[in-house]
Amino acid sequence: MELNSTLAPIIDLSRKQDGTSDTAAFAKDVAHGLSLNRKDLPSRYFYDGRGSQLFQEIMNLPEYYLTRAEHEVFTSNKAAICSKFAEEGFFHLIDLGAGDALKTKILLQQLSQQKADFDYVPVDISGDAMQQLSDSLRTELPDMTVQAVVGEYFKALEWLQENKSERKVVLFLGSNIGNFEKKDSIEFLQSVRSYLSPGDKLLMGVDLRKNPDVILKAYDDAAGITAEFNLNLLRRINRELGGEFILEQFRHYAIYNPLEGVMRSFLISLQEQDVYIRDTGKTYHFDAWEAIHTENSHKYSVDEIEELGNHCGFTIEKVYYDTEKHFADVLFSAS
Predict the structure, then answer these.
(1) CA distances (Å), 10 to each of 123, 149, 165, 208, in order?
(2) Mind listing the pLDDT tens digit for each residue in 182-191?
(3) Which segments constitute the Histidine-specific methyltransferase SAM-dependent domain (predicted)?
């Protein structure tokens, strides 16, 4: 299949079969999470328009080493990585959680220079992000075939399995695997594997274990951007679900456990208070200093990642590191 200038319409899988939006699912998840004895909100709801903008700012912070490290991995190893992708002919390059694809574009440009036979399928829950990415790629890489998909990962993988039967290379970049609890990471990777055929590939970003002080500063920066990012989740509930959170009555709190290798983020209620949310029809009570858990970020050793991959039906082909070995991108083959 030759590359061409066709940029197909964006496939939107983010709406339910009855035509309703995902606002009802958002309200359901919030109602469930705030009704728990240990309150918990899913981190995937960070990324509305403002949340995505704040995360872009976080990636440019001096403390946030992750983006720079993975950028270095790709810049230093792009030819080798792309050669691995392209060694068996045509493939679909599927980018789960593509966002602005800033790092992926390093690989896209290299693949185009190598005249690799592929098309690019970015997947994201943000329709705005996919529209902006499609527009930018039309200008930057006009000869590349792009099919953007808006929706949850597994809806997109199911659609791809039904509509694109050729070889697949899946990207799961950043440290996104770290956002899952360990048992959930197994379920996630097993699900990804179920949509792939033997020999298909997965390139996964992994934040490695390191000096705990370096990790903690990355999630609690001096400028307070990460705190604003965390608090924006409450702002989104107010705007989209009719919540009545007073943001000044909550604070961001982050802690790293080096024994478990996990960074956890919370929102702490600064006083006893009740918060009504219109779309759930309920009022939620908070004790003074009560926490809402909002995010995990697990850090791995390479041995742990190899064990995880093997358990889920993948074998490691190659591990690519940054200079300081703060971060790795691991190339798996579906076995």
Answers:
(1) 10, 6, 19, 35
(2) 899 999 999 9
(3) 26-333
